[in-house]
């Protein structure tokens, strides 16, 4: 019995041990089953780079990757609405082929998660250096997604440019008002041009007034993020010279600088005091740069390269009137009723008559912003010149300014600056002008009128409420041996050629003289001016056609007239 009890104890002990092992196995299986049940279900994204979304943006905006430039490549990554899950833990791998010298990018860029159904934009920074060469760079983008569901590799081609030097120069300067007077403010203008082949960055300009007592009245410093090749900046500073200024000229120093500190010049120039406009305006200073720098300047291309006559014509006399500033003489008018560039018309016409027509300077009467008294006095003086030569004189009369017809009679009048549009009869009638010019016989009389007589204007009419309306002025016959070239016809207005800073008529009149180099004929001159004014005014949305009126005595010969007759 005792042995039986020992066997029984052993049996239950073994059974207990086995049961513990079995329970452990069951528990392990149970834990293993529980682990399998907690494992997440795979939910991959459905990614694509949006077609057409890859955009290259360079720093200066010329569409190339220039040397030493920061740029970006942007793209849009879409995770389709039909995707099973969000895109997470992604990396954009970047590689370069082709003209990659001097170009650096991050080869791996971690990008943000893109939720299912969302589209997000990402940026790849690109940096070039001075070692970048001309060529074509190919940039490849590959989006790596942890589950292997990234889109196919995409690429874009970028043109690269090696370093090209900028060259900053002051290529022209002038006094806007045309004259520097002691004790009076004036506007100093200058043109800064990048004459080089490369972009100039972080451009700085500083005007220094060298002479003691000369003071700026406005900012002297200017900054620009960049100047592209060939770009021009027109800058100005208001300046005043003291009343007791002892010198006969004012010096101007313009200091230029750019980011590299090597490709900008310092300009020093001087302009005289109490000098006429033709001495201070449109002056092109010589620069070491030379070349094409002279092709950028203030004013118009007809203001320069004026041909010279081979001889002086002592028998020729001229009266030139440029009436621009009506508002300053009439408190009831505003500056929009002035005649833009009429003074410039007159000044440059003076130079052509002196240099090309050979008229001695002392034979030319120049009036700007003339009152009625001044206009009548000057017209009489021109007539007296003709009387002194007893029929051997040649007269030239040029007028740029407002013209108006009488409301009652439609008779056309030239308007002095001290006459407003409500009483054009207080001006000079064309009949009066022609009568004075024909008082004494002449070899020939030439009249140029850059004015309309319909009530229209270059800018705003002198007549209140006249804008958009037009009158047909009465036609006035020219007498004696006179040819009258008028800037417009009938009820048209005479416009301004903004890009050339002259009236249409005056610009193309001077252009013909310049190109003919003195070998002109009146007939060809009229045909050219009529055609070009009509074309250009139509391009600018205006309707202007010059006209000519000829005295009956020369109707068959005027077209063959020239300067050497």
Task: Spell out the key features of this protein.
565 residues; alpha+beta; Immunoglobulin-like; Rossmann fold; 3 domains; 6-stranded mixed β-sheet; 5-stranded mixed β-sheet; 20% helix; 29% strand; elongated
Strand order of the largest sheet: 19-18-20-24-25-28
The total of helices stands at 7
Report the uncertain regions.
24-34, 277-294, 463-473
Number of strands: 28
| Class from secondary-structure proportions | alpha+beta
Q: What is the strand content?
A: 25-35%
Highest-level CATH class of the largest domain: Alpha Beta
How many structural domains does the protein architecture include?
A: 3
Tell me the CATH architecture of the largest domain.
Answer: 3-Layer(aba) Sandwich
């Amino acid at each position: 019995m005792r042995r039986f009890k020992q066997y029984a104890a052993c049996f239950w002990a073994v059974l207990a041990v086995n049961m513990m092992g079995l329970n452990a196995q069951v528990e392990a299986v149970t834990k293993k089953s529980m682990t399998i049940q907690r494992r997440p279900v795979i939910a991959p994204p459905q990614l694509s780079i949006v077609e057409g979304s890859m955009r290259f943006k360079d720093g200066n905006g010329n569409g190339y990757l220039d040397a030493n430039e920061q740029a970006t490549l942007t793209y849009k990554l879409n995770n389709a609405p039909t995707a099973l899950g969000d895109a997470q833990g992604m990396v954009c791998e970047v590689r370069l082929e082709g003209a990659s010298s001097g170009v650096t990018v991050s080869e791996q860029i971690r990008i943000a998660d893109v939720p299912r159904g969302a589209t997000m934009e990402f940026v790849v920074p690109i940096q070039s250096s001075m070692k970048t060469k001309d060529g074509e760079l190919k940039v490849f983008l590959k989006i790596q997604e942890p589950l292997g569901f990234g889109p196919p590799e995409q690429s874009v081609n970028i043109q690269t440019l090696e370093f090209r030097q900028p060259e900053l120069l002051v290529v022209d300067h002038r006094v806007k008002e045309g004259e520097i007077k002691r004790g009076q403010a004036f506007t100093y203008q200058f043109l800064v041009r990048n004459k080089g082949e490369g972009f100039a960055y972080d451009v700085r300009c500083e005007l220094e007034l060298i002479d003691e007592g000369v003071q700026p009245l406005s900012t002297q410093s200017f900054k620009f993020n960049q100047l592209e090749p060939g770009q021009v900046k027109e800058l100005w500073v208001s300046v005043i010279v003291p009343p007791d200024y002892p010198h006969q000229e004012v010096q101007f120093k313009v200091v230029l600088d750019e980011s590299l500190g090597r490709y900008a010049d310092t300009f020093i120039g001087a302009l005289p005091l109490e000098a006429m406009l033709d001495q201070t305006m449109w002056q092109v200073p010589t620069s070491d740069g030379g070349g094409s720098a002279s092709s950028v300047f203030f004013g118009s291309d007809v203001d320069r390269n004026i041909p010279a006559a081979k001889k002086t014509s002592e028998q020729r006399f001229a009266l030139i009137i440029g009436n621009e500033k009506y508002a300053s003489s009439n408190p009831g008018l505003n500056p929009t009723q002035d005649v833009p560039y009429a003074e410039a018309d007159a000044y440059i016409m003076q130079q052509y008559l002196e240099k090309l027509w050979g008229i001695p300077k002392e034979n030319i009467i120049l009036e700007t912003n003339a009152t009625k008294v001044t206009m009548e006095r000057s017209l009489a003086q021109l007539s007296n010149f003709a009387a002194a030569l007893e029929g051997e004189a040649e007269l030239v009369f040029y007028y740029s300014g407002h013209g108006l017809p009488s409301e009652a009679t439609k008779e056309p009048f030239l308007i002095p600056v001290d006459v407003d549009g409500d009483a054009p009869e207080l001006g000079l009638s064309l009949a009066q002008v022609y009568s004075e010019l024909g008082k004494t016989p002449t070899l020939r009389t030439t009249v140029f009128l850059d004015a309309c007589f319909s009530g229209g204007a270059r800018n705003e009419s002198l007549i209140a409420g006249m804008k958009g309306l037009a009158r047909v002025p009465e036609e006035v016959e020219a007498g004696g041996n006179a040819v009258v070239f008028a800037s417009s016809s009938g009820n048209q207005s005479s416009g301004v050629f903004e890009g050339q800073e002259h009236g249409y008529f005056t610009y193309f009149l001077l252009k013909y003289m310049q190109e003919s180099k003195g070998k002109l004929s009146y007939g060809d001159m009229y045909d050219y001016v009529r055609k070009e004014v009509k074309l250009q005014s139509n391009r600018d949305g205006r309707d202007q056609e010059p006209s000519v009126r000829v005295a009956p005595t020369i109707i068959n010969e005027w077209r063959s007239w020239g300067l050497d007759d």
